[in-house]
Amino acid sequence: YYLYYLIECWANNERVREALHVKKGTKGHWQRCNWTIPYDHDIISSVPYHMNISLSGYRSLVYSGDHDITMPFLGTQAWIKSLNYSIIDDWRPWKIKDQIAG
Question: Which ranges does the record mark as transmembrane (predicted)?
Fold first, then answer.
């Protein structure tokens, strides 16, 4: 659990929050997920799911961390590229009300 403690310290560090453009006073103390949730379903890859919803006409937003917080963005980019979609627009910051959100 030491690693989880370090993550919590990192996420609550003011310098880190500033680097991530978290506006001061907008977020309280960050805590890791509740690991006691009775959940045991796991999949090897989510690529087929994303391919299926895309072929069905649905749009989706994928960002690093929506499947596994330990997955670096390069891994996310690699599996998105494996879908062989046409690139419509370059990667760019995601903002909400002029706040960088991702």
Answer: none
